[in-house]
C-alpha cells in the first residue's frame, strides 16, 4: 500500500501520542491520588435498603472505624441525601474517609463540588469511594444525574473541620 | 464509475432520490424541534429568560436530546447513505418497496416517541392511556419509567435502521455478483462497514428495550437491574457516537476534497480507518461507566486503553481532511505555508460548513481525551463539560457537515437551485460564532463543577467558583451562543424551505456533481481490506471478549437482580 511520507510520520506521531496517553492515565490511576470506584461495595436490594445495617436510620452518617479512618454511609433518594440535605455531613481533615452510598429509588449522582469525589449512585449497588480532605471548609454536594422533576433541588452540604476540632463523640 | 457527467441523481435514481428527500425532510424537522428546545433550555438555565418552569425543564431536555441525537443525527446517516450507495455502485438499491417500508416504519417510530415526549407537558392522566410521559432524557435510565409507546417508538426506529442496513448490504451483494473482480467503491465501503458496526452495537439497546424496559413498563415483569440495563445502554451508547460521525467522515473523505478543488489523498488509508471503527468502536462502552459502582476496575482500564486507540482513526482522518483541502487549494492556485487557506472557497456554505466542522472536531477531540482519561474524568463527569464536548462533535462536526452536504446535494436531489443564497452564505458563520461562545462556556462551567441536566443556575447551600473567568460571564456566553445557534439553525431551515418552494430549475449541463478519483486509488491497497466478512467476524469476537464476562456475571445472579421497581420522574 502506498502511503505518503508525511502520512507515515503522522501515523507514527499519533501512535506515540496514544501510547503516551495510556501511560499517563495508567500512572494517574495506579499511582498516587484517589482510589477509583470499583465493584467492591457489593450489592443490595433497593426495596430493603432502610432495613440494612449500613443504610438504616442508625447506620447512616459518620462512623469512626479506625484511629484515623471514618466511614460515611449516605442514602440517596428522590430528592435528598441522607445525611447531607437536612443536616450536613461533618468529617475531619487529614483522615481517611470512606463513603458508602446507594439509592433507594432511581439513579442519582454524588458530587462534592470542586473535588474528585464524583460518582454514580445506582440502586442495587453499594458504591465505595475513599478520599482525604486536606483543607477545612464547606463543600456543596449535588446530585448530578437526572433523577426526576425535582432533580435541581437535590443538594447537600459537607463540612470539613480541622482534625483537632473534630469531636468523634459527636458522630 | 460511469455516473453520467451531467445526469442528476434524481433523474438517474428517482426512487432513491425520493427516499433521500423524505429522510432529510423528517431529519430537518427534528433538527428544528431540537433547536427550539435548545434555546429555551439555554436561556432558562442561565436565568436570562424564564418562560418555562424548572419542573418542565426535563421534558424540554428529553425532546432536545432525542430529536437531536437519536432522530436528526441518525436520519442524517440514513439520508447520506441512501444517496451514497446507489451513487457509488452506480446502480439502484433494487427494492423500492423495501426502501419505502423501512422509511415508513422509522417514521411511525418517531411519531410514537414524539407523542410520549410531548405528553410530558400534560399534567395528570390521559383517558385510557394513563400517565403519558417520557421525561426520562435520551438515556432513559431505569428505574425512571416512560410510557410504553416511548420504548415501542424507539424500538421501531432502531429496527428501521437495521432494515436500512440490509438494503445497502443486498445492494452490495448484487453488485458483487455482477462485478466479481472490482474493488468495492469507497462510499459503499464506508456505508456498509458503518452499518455493520451499528447492527452489532445496537444489539445492546435492542436487548435492553425489548427484553427489559418494554415488558417492565407494561407491567409484565416487576423489576429490572438498573446496572444491567445501563450497561446494555452504553454498549450501544458509545459506538453510537462513532456511528453519528460516519456521514461526516463520508463527506470529508469523498465530498470535501472535491469542494476544495482537489481530490482525496489515499483511498486505501480511508478503508483502514473505517475498518478500525468497525473493530474498535463496539467494545468501549464501559468508558461511560467509569464512575459506576459494580463495574470492576480491570474492565474500566482495558476499555480506557481501547478508547485511546480509537483516537487513531480520527487522527488519520484529520490528516486526510487537511491534506485534501491543501491539495485542493493549491490546485486553485493557493501558495505559501498557510497562504493556501485563502484560496479555499470560504464564500460557499457547502465548503465553509464542512471546514468549520473539521475545526470543531479537532477541539472536541481534545476535550474528549480528557473524558477518556479514567482519572481526569472524575473532575468533569456529568458536568456541563460533557455537553460542551458533544456539541463540538455531534452538535457541530456532524451537524455542520450535514448542513454543507445537504446544501450540496439539494440541486441533485430536487433539480432546483438554492434560494436565499446570501443567508445560506452567512449561516455556517453564525453557527461558528454561536458554538464558539456556547462550547467554551460549557467547558469552563464544567470545570467549576456546574452539573449538566439541571434546570437551575445556582444552588441554595453553596456557590460555584469559576477556575477560568467568572460565573456571570460564563452564563452570558452560554446564553448568547445558544441564541446564535438557534438563529443559524432556522436560517438553514429557511434556506431549504425557500429553495423547495422558490428555487429556480437548474440546467444539469452547467453543473458537475461528479466526485474525482483519489490520488492513490483502491487498487493500491491489499485485497484483504475488502474482506468484510473477516472484519465483521473479528468485531463480533472483540465484543464478546469485552462484554461476555461482566454480562454473564450479572445475568447469572438473576437478570432482574438486584431489582428496582419503576419510578415516575
Ligand atoms: C440550536 C442549537 C442548540 C442549543 C441552543 C443547544 C443547547 C443545549 C444545552 C444548553 C444543553 C444542556 C442542557 C443541560 O444539560 O441542562 C444541551 C444538551 C444537549 N444537546 Fe444541545 N443545543 C443545540 C444544538 C444541539 C445539536 C445540533 C445537537 C446534536 C446533534 C445537540 C445535542 C444535545 C444533547 C445530546 C444534549 C444532552 C441532553 C441530555 O443531557 O439528556 N444539541 N443542548
Ligand atoms: Cu438525584
Ligand atoms: Cu463514549
Condensed summary:
With 171 residues, chain A is an alpha+beta fold.
Labels describing this entry:
A: alpha+beta, five-stranded mixed β-sheet, 1 helix, B: 569 residues, mainly alpha, 66% helix, 0% strand, binds protoporphyrin IX containing FE, binds copper (II) ion
Describe the protein's architecture and organization:
The complex is a heterodimer of chains A (171) and B (569). Helix content of chain A is 15%, strand content 33%. Chain A is of the alpha+beta class and 171 residues long. In chain A, the strands form two sheets. In chain A, strands 1, 2, 3, 5 and 8 form a five-stranded mixed sheet that branches. In chain A, a hairpin with a 2-residue loop joins strand 2 and strand 3. Chain A is elongated, with a radius of gyration of 20 Å. The mean pLDDT of chain A is 86. Chain B has helices spanning 9-12, 14-45, 57-89, 96-118, 148-178, 186-201, 203-217, 226-237, 239-254, 256-260, 267-280, 297-309, 311-331, 349-372, 377-380, 385-414, 421-447, 471-502, 532-556. At the A-B interface, helix 1, strand 7, strand 9 and strand 10 of A face helix 3, helix 8, helix 12 and helix 13 of B. One copper (II) ion binds next to loops of chain A.
Mean pLDDT of chain A: 86
Low-pLDDT ranges of chain B: none
Ends apart, CA distance between termini of chain A: 70 Å
Instruction: Give the helix proportion of chain B (percent range).
Output: 55-70%
Radius of gyration of chain A: 20 Å
State the helical fraction of chain A. Answer: 10-25%
* Residue runs with pLDDT of under 50 for 5 or more positions of chain A: none
The number of distinct helices of chain A, counting runs of at least 4 residues, comes to 1
Which series of helices and strands of chain B comes N to C? HHHHHHHHHHHHHHHHHHH
Mean pLDDT level of chain B: 90
Shape by Cα distribution of chain B: globular
Number of strands of chain A: 10
Number of strands of chain B: 0
- Radius of gyration of chain B (CA) equals 23 Å
Amino acid at each position: 500500500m502506498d502511503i505518503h511520507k508525511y502520512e507515515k510520520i503522522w501515523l507514527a506521531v499519533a501512535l506515540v501520542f496514544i501510547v503516551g496517553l495510556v501511560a499517563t492515565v495508567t500512572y494517574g490511576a495506579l499511582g498516587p491520588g484517589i482510589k477509583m470506584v470499583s465493584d467492591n461495595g457489593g450489592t443490595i436490594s433497593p426495596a430493603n435498603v432502610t432495613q440494612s445495617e449500613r443504610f438504616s436510620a442508625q447506620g447512616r452518617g459518620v462512623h469512626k472505624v479506625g484511629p484515623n479512618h471514618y466511614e460515611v454511609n449516605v442514602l440517596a433518594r428522590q430528592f435528598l441525601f441522607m445525611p447531607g440535605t437536612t443536616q450536613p455531613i461533618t468529617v475531619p481533615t487529614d483522615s481517611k474517609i470512606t463513603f458508602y452510598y446507594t439509592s433507594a429509588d432511581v439513579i442519582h449522582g454524588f458530587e462534592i463540588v470542586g473535588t474528585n469525589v464524583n460518582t454514580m449512585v445506582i440502586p442495587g449497588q453499594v458504591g465505595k469511594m475513599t478520599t482525604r480532605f486536606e483543607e477545612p471548609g464547606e463543600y456543596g454536594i449535588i446530585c448530578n444525574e437526572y433523577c426526576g422533576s425535582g432533580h435541581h433541588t437535590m443538594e447537600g452540604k459537607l463540612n470539613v473541620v480541622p482534625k483537632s476540632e473534630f469531636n468523634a463523640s459527636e458522630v | 464509475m460511469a455516473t453520467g457527467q451531467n445526469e442528476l441523481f434524481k433523474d438517474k435514481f428517482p426512487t432513491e432520490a425520493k427516499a433521500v428527500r423524505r429522510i432529510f425532510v423528517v431529519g430537518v424537522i427534528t433538527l428544528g424541534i431540537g433547536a427550539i428546545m435548545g434555546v429555551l433550555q439555554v436561556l432558562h438555565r442561565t436565568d436570562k429568560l424564564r418562560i418555562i418552569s424548572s419542573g418542565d425543564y426535563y421534558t424540554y431536555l428529553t425532546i432536545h436530546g432525542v430529536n437531536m441525537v437519536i432522530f436528526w443525527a441518525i436520519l442524517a446517516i440514513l439520508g447520506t447513505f441512501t444517496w451514497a450507495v446507489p451513487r457509488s455502485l452506480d446502480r439502484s438499491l433494487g427494492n423500492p418497496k423495501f426502501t419505502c417500508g423501512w422509511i415508513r416504519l422509522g417514521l411511525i417510530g418517531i411519531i410514537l416517541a414524539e407523542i410520549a415526549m410531548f405528553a410530558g407537558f400534560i399534567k395528570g392522566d390521559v383517558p385510557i392511556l394513563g400517565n403519558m410521559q417520557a421525561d426520562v432524557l435520551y438515556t432513559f435510565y431505569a428505574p425512571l419509567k416512560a410510557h410504553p409507546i416511548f420504548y415501542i417508538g424507539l424500538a421501531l426506529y432502531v429496527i428501521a435502521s437495521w432494515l436500512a442496513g440490509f438494503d445497502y448490504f443486498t445492494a452490495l451483494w448484487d453488485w458483487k455478483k455482477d462485478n466479481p473482480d472490482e474493488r468495492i467503491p469507497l462510499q459503499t465501503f464506508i456505508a456498509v462497514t458503518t452499518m455493520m458496526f451499528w447492527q452489532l452495537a445496537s444489539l445492546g439497546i435492542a436487548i435492553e428495550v425489548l427484553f427489559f424496559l418494554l415488558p417492565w413498563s407494561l407491567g409484565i415483569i416487576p423489576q429490572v437491574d438498573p446496572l444491567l440495563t445501563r450497561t446494555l445502554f452504553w454498549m450501544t451508547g458509545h459506538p453510537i457516537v462513532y456511528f453519528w460521525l460516519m456521514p461526516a467522515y463520508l463527506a470529508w473523505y469523498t465530498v470535501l476534497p472535491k469542494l476544495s478543488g482537489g481530490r482525496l489523498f489515499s483511498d486505501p488509508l480511508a478503508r483502514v480507518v473505517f475498518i478500525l471503527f468497525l473493530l474498535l468502536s463496539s467494545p468501549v462502552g464501559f468508558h461511560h461507566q467509569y464512575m459506576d459502582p459494580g463495574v470492576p476496575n480491570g474492565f474500566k482500564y482495558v476499555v480506557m486503553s481501547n478508547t485511546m486507540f480509537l483516537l487513531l482513526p480520527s487522527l488519520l482522518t484529520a490528516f486526510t481532511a487537511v491534506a485534501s483541502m491543501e491539495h485542493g487549494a493549491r490546485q486553485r492556485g493557493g501558495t505559501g505555508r498557510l497562504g493556501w487557506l485563502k484560496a479555499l472557497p470560504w464564500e460557499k456554505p457547502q465548503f465553509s460548513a464542512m471546514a468549520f466542522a473539521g475545526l470543531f472536531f479537532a477541539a472536541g477531540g481534545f476535550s474528549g481525551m480528557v473524558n477518556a482519561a479514567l482519572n481526569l474524568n472524575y473532575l468533569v463527569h456529568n458536568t456541563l463539560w460533557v455537553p460542551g464536548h458533544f456539541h463540538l462533535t455531534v452538535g457541530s462536526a456532524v451537524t455542520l457537515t450535514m448542513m454543507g452536504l445537504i446544501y450540496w446535494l439539494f440541486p441533485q436531489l430536487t433539480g432546483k437551485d438554492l434560494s436565499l443564497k446570501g443567508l445560506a452564505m452567512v449561516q455556517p458563520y453564525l453557527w461558528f460564532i454561536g458554538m464558539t461562545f456556547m462550547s467554551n462556556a460549557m467547558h469552563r462551567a464544567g470545570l467549576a463543577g456546574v452539573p449538566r441536566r439541571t434546570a437551575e443556575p445556582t444552588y441554595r447551600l453553596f456557590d460555584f467558583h469559576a477556575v477560568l473567568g467568572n460565573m456571570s460571564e460564563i452564563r452570558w456566553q452560554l446564553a448568547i451562543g445558544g441564541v446564535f445557534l438557534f438563529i443559524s439553525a432556522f436560517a438553514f431551515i429557511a434556506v431549504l424551505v425557500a429553495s423547495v418552494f422558490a428555487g429556480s430549475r437548474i440546467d444539469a449541463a452547467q453543473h458537475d456533481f461528479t466526485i474525482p478519483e483519489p490520488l492513490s486509488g483502491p487498487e493500491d491497497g491489499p485485497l484483504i481490506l475488502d474482506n468484510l466478512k473477516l472484519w465483521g467476524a473479528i468485531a463480533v469476537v472483540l465484543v464478546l471478549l469485552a462484554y461476555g464476562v461482566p454480562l454473564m456475571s450479572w445475568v447469572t445472579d438473576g437478570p432482574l437482580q438486584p431489582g428496582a421497581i419503576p419510578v415516575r420522574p
